[in-house]
Amino acid sequence: MYELAEHATGGVAPTLDVVPLFETVADLDRSHSVMESVIKLKPVRRRLAKAGRLEVMLGYSDSTTRERAVAERLFLLTVNGVAAGLQNTG
Fold first, then answer.
1. Tally of domains within the chain
2. Residue 77: inside a domain
């Protein structure tokens, strides 16, 4: 996304807030590794340093199931762990 936007603007890096969407239980299961990879991207790290936050979206396509609620809680714990790790590594 960042490379495409830079290419489309003639090499001027635009400010983008790319927000990952985790909609299914399988998405939530992979969210930790996805977020670790996202946070390693230079444009994301620059934006995170400037904004002081990173957004994610949780979808609700099957929000009525019990496993969904549990998976979302685990995801939030995961995100907090990734954020804590990021703070410790600068």
1. 1
2. yes
